[in-house]
């Protein structure tokens, strides 16, 4: 009777780096893990520093802005402009810097220095600031133009402010300014069109009531 051959299961050969008795944390692995851990730590520290430094920077800028506002409130216009200019240069690209640039323009307007305000605002807008800064900058530019009798330019700046504003109330308010500038420039039909635009587009805003009143006044004068 023939014997049945039995096949034995082969025993797997362990890789050299996992040989029996050899620890997992070899000196080479410890060195690799140590380098990797150091890299992660450096990156984490860099991120933390960037975040905290940004917060500190904004905090310092806010404190500086308060000093500028105090100077302007006390009618120290020269000091206020220098202060705002310093903040804008020191914290370039931050919301504080944008606010400082607008602060310079506001101070010039209060001091009756409309041409300086116009020049500064045009230069600022050429840098393509974000809409949050560009909208009020155009509104201030419209005011400066209006103050020097450039009503067509004022209307255009106010319309731009309306286009860039992110809130319905601000959009409608800027259009009211644009309509006023149009009237001052003897563009009655254009002013009426702007008031009708407000009534149509922004019927839920408080500006609609004023637009209706102004439109009624224009109609009454023309009859």
Write a structural description.
By secondary structure, the protein is mainly α. It is 75% helix and 0% strand. It is built from 9 helices and no strands. The protein has helices spanning 27-73, 77-90, 95-110, 114-125, 131-147, 151-164, 168-184, 188-201, 207-222. Helix 1 runs antiparallel to helix 2 (77-90), helix 3 packs antiparallel against helix 4 (114-125) and helix 7 runs parallel beside helix 9 (207-222). The model is unreliable at 1-19, 30-38 and 40-46 (pLDDT under 50).
Summary, kept brief:
The protein is mainly α and 223 residues long.
What structural category arises from helix and sheet content?
mainly alpha
Shape: elongated
Q: Given the structure, what is the number of helices? A: 9
User: Overall pLDDT, averaged?
Assistant: 82
* Uncertain residue segments: 1-19, 30-38, 40-46
Radius of gyration based on Cα positions: 34 Å
How much beta, percentage-wise?
A: under 5%
């Amino acid at each position: 009777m023939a014997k049945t051959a039995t096949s034995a299961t082969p025993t797997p050969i362990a890789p050299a780096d996992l040989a029996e008795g050899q620890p997992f944390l070899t000196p080479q692995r410890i060195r690799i893990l140590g380098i990797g851990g150091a890299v992660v730590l450096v990156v984490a520290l860099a991120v933390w520093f960037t975040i905290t430094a940004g917060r500190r920077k904004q905090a310092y800028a806010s404190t500086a802005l308060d000093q500028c506002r105090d100077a302007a409130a006390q009618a120290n216009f020269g000091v206020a402009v220098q202060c705002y200019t310093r903040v804008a240069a020191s914290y370039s690209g931050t919301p504080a810097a944008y606010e400082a640039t607008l602060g310079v323009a506001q101070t010039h307007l209060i001091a009756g220095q409309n041409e300086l305000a116009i020049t500064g605002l045009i230069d600022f807008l050429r840098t393509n600031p974000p809409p949050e800064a560009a909208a009020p900058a155009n509104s201030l530019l419209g005011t400066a133009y209006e103050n020097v009798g450039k009503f067509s330019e004022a209307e255009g700046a106010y319309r731009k402010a309306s286009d860039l504003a992110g809130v319905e109330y601000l959009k409608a308010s800027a259009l009211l300014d644009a309509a006023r500038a149009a009237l001052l420039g003897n563009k009655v039909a254009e002013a009426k069109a702007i008031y009708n635009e407000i009534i149509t587009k922004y019927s839920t805003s408080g500006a609609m009531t004023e637009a209706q009143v102004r439109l009624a006044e224009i109609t009454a004068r023309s009859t």
